[in-house]
Amino acid sequence: MKYSRRKFIKTSTLAAGSLLYVPAMRNFAAAAKGNAAPIAVYTWNYGTKVGRIALEVIKKGGDGIDSIEKAINSVESDPTVKSVGLGGLPDASGEVTLDASIMDWNGNAGAVAYLKYIENPISVARLVKERTPHVLLAGEGALKFALSNGFKKTNLLTEESKKAWERWKKNHAKKINNHDTIGMLVLDANNNLSGGVSTSGLSYKLPGRVGDSPIIGAGLFVDNAVGAACSTGMGELAIKTSGSFLVVEKMREGYSPEEACKIAVERTTKYGRNQQICFLAMNSKGKVGAYALIRGFSYMVATQQGIKLFASKHLF
Ligand code: ASP
């Protein structure tokens, strides 16, 4: 996890009275035992506004997919978020390329990879799910599909991100892994599970690199009868272990969401211990759990009782 977000968590914990920073689910019995729907859980500290949007959509009669799309759109369109959508940090050549996926309670999924110029990739992913017989559109084809469905071309590289990239180019030898993904899982008013993820991926990645987020089973997986999971961190680790699918399969075997996430994290350790990988899961009863390889992962749980920030357990 990048330093700035860690710092932000600390300061926002102090600043926002309603925002509790609860170590590893302690004192939040409802989420530990299972919540009554609706419930939205999401990676990192993207703020309480995101959770409020997710719950609001459901209150107005929307389903989990509507809720996830609106909530994630708010993060994608925020130019101050350096890891998602507009303002996301670019690849090594200075181009912002986005990955996103969405999956519903019927097991239908849509995704986009290596998508340029489109501010809201999660919305394009939703249309791939709803308007095509395919799951994943990439690159030029994904862009053409978006434009033909009314999306507008936007310059996603903000001045700030451009400056950061230029600084990186000067210190080329120094490798910087500045990243994060907004991943959200929702149990909606009909007790249906959905999930979505959106990211600009690893900053300064090799042009053409695609991460775990648009790969169903790696960055996201939903089985309405069992649970849903998503990942953030070094996407290559989630791809090589089919991480989110593994978490859901472990929940199917009877493991709690936290135990299932821990097993998936442990599975990645054969590739080393230096790159962060984190999983977030919710089962069909609304029980939530997370696990990270390295200290520093946090996630938010939004229910009608409130929106809270939790520190994930971790291996190292
Ligand atoms: N998983 C994302 C990727 O590898 C990045 C992140 O979530 O930190 O593209």
Features:
single chain, 316 residues, alpha+beta, Glutamine Phosphoribosylpyrophosphate, subunit 1, domain 1, nine-stranded mixed sheet, five-stranded mixed sheet, 10 helices, 14 strands, binds aspartic acid
Distance between the termini: 13 Å
Protein structure class: alpha+beta
CATH superfamily: (Glycosyl)asparaginase
The low-confidence parts are: 1-32
CATH architecture tag: 4-Layer Sandwich
Radius of gyration: 18 Å
The CATH first-level class comes to Alpha Beta
- Kindly report the spatial arrangement of strands forming the biggest sheet: 1-13-12-2-6-7-3-4-5
Q: Main sheet, how many strands, which sense, barrel?
A: 9 strands, mixed
Topology:
Layout: H1 3-15, E1 21-23, H2 29-33, E2 39-43, H3 48-59, H4 64-76, E3 98-103, E4 109-115, H5 121-131, E5 136-138, H6 139-148, H7 159-170, E6 182-187, E7 193-199, E8 220-223, E9 227-233, H8 235-240, H9 243-252, H10 257-268, E10 277-283, E11 288-292, E12 298-303, E13 306-311, E14 313-314
Parallel strand pairs: 1-13, 4-5, 11-14
Antiparallel strand pairs: 2-6, 2-12, 3-4, 3-7, 6-7, 8-9, 9-10, 10-11, 12-13
Bound molecules: aspartic acid (ASP).
Aspartic acid binds at residues 179-181, 199, 201-202, 211-213, 232-235.
